[in-house]
Design a protein that fits this description.
This protein has 3 domains: 61-164, Roll (Pdz3 Domain), CATH 2.30.42.10; 180-367 and 456-619, Glycosyltransferase (Alpha/alpha barrel); 372-449, no CATH class. By secondary structure, the chain is α+β, with helices and mostly antiparallel strands. The strands form 3 sheets. Strands 1, 2, 3, 4, 5, 6 and 7 form a 7-stranded antiparallel beta sheet that branches. Strands 11-13-14-10-12 form a 5-stranded antiparallel beta sheet, with no helix packed on it. It has a two-stranded antiparallel ribbon with strand order 8-9. The protein has helices at 16-22, 49-55, 127-139, 180-199, 207-220, 226-236, 252-269, 275-287, 301-309, 320-335, 342-353, 418-422, 470-480, 487-501, 514-525, 530-546, 574-584, 610-619; strands at 61-62, 68-71, 80-85, 100-104, 107-108, 144-150, 158-164, 356-357, 360-361, 372-377, 391-392, 403-406, 428-431, 445-449. The radius of gyration is 26 Å and the shape is elongated.
Length: 621
Amino acid sequence: MARLKGWRTLRLAIGAMLLSQLLGGTPARAINERAHWPWGVRVRAWQEAEVWEALEKGWYLNVGPTGIRARITHEHPASFTVRYVFEDSPAHGRIHPGDIIVGANGEVMETPHQFGRGRGIDGWDGPLVEMARLIEDSQANDGQLELIVWRNGNEEERETVALQIRPRERFSRTFPFDCSRSDDLVAQLTAALVAEYERNGNRWGDSHVQAHSLLALMASGEPEHEAMIQEFRREAADYRTRGVESQAGLPAWEYGYMGVVLGELFTRYADERLLPAIESLGEYYVHGADPASGSYSHKPFPAIRQRVAHGGGLGYGPMATPGGLAMLAMSIWRVNGLGIPTTAHERLHQSYLRNTFPDGVRAGYSFRNRDAVVIALEDGSRARSPRGCGFFVQQGMENLGAYTVRHPRNGSVIDPPEWLTDEADTNLVYDISAPEPGIYGSPHVRYIVRKSPIPEPEGPFETTRGFARAATGVGALAHMIGNDDRPSWGYLGDHAARSCALDPRNWLSGHASSSIHQLWVALAAARAGEDLFREFMEQVRWWFVMQEDHRGTYFVVPDRDYVVNSDIRHGPHMLPTANAAIILSLPRRQLLITGADVGTAEAPESGAGAAQASATRRTDP
């Protein structure tokens, strides 16, 4: 299991203050008006060691394959102020820290970068986009790039400095389709992933880095990677979750990603040895979810409630993207005819419906919650779960006896909402008993969640608003893969895909990991129709030029204004490298998430996975 140890940990815990900034709770600030951010951040990757040693810190902008790292400043917002030049790069000895790059190939860049969010300003217009075009021109012209430079920032010392960069054909008008440059990059990038895997002791890193990298090898269809993929498949057969009562680790991301990877491996090999691992994840998808949001916190719901019962806190709230990944995993399993936890699948569908609006799907950091209250019972023998604290009560609200209604977070007594009694037959009940009375005034506590299903869409939506977030993108795939027999799911999936495609300017604007948002938004946009996808790719074309570094990997770009980004610790090169490989592999259609057409199948009532599916129907709300 050595090669799966990267699935075991993921630490993306971000403070509440930073979260409120991401959700618009504080005034926007320009990236270089915050003390040394991102320029004062150390990027945790061996590729960045030179920068650490020379400058101690620094998360600077990559200027394509030149080997230059730079800042964009308020003083020179249409230019690059050079901060470092790598020794083994084309620019070494020709460009120096302190130089300001104002253009290339006889053309001066004129569009300033627009700093600040929350003021109607989005996108990456400015020197990143303009230089990308100039570099691509040079690559198509035998790699001759002539930079226009102000030496040491002095406008009076203007020079033209010629660099030799790697020649490449232009991206085609329809890239990544019918594009030789895309094909060449896929081979280059997957080879880099393999080299990093071997360098790093036969692992890539944490769960999302591991998943994106393995999916990139599979998406490429390159035969030289088949042996490595086969070895992952064999080791994945031994994978099991740590159980829904475990307090260990932060498993929400690991379990979501592992479900997708196992589903794609099963699609590829139909290996029944993977089924116990899949069933282990199915148990988590059923019982680990937060009942009000339908999604997952860093720890499973029973583990959280057991911690609270013993005096601990509720901890981090449930996040939408891990729920979307779990739903996508179940959709992939359904394609393969496996028994799935049906109501967990549908519960997440309802979570997406709660974030669906006539103009677009807006599934961001978290899903909108269902109504919920806590009731403190006088008779603790009523409405118990045989599995104990944190688990579903099958008899629901029947014969509860006397109780007091409490606020679920602070424990204060509140008036009973009308739905509590009016919808008693459908309300969901969870046993959250505790050894001591605690804030609810009784140890005999039940969590009541209003089921209140949202009606299914009756026809296609007219999508007019973009929302490029990972949860929206994953939700598009989760609804469009394996659910052709459900027209309303298709309507929602199309709506979510178009929401992603309509927002390319915020492609990298997501909480904690811009790379997670980048991948799933792009894969969803690819399903939004040819015209929308074409426009989306043209808007993000700059990234495929500017973020390829001089060594042939991709480097994570600081989110346009927000620097809260775990990618500087988790895969600053490998995540964007894997993402580029997967997106550029779309024409190969090797995975369900990249467009493979394997057909749709109903979950069976017998055979592989049936026992798990049957058990789910008995216990899952």
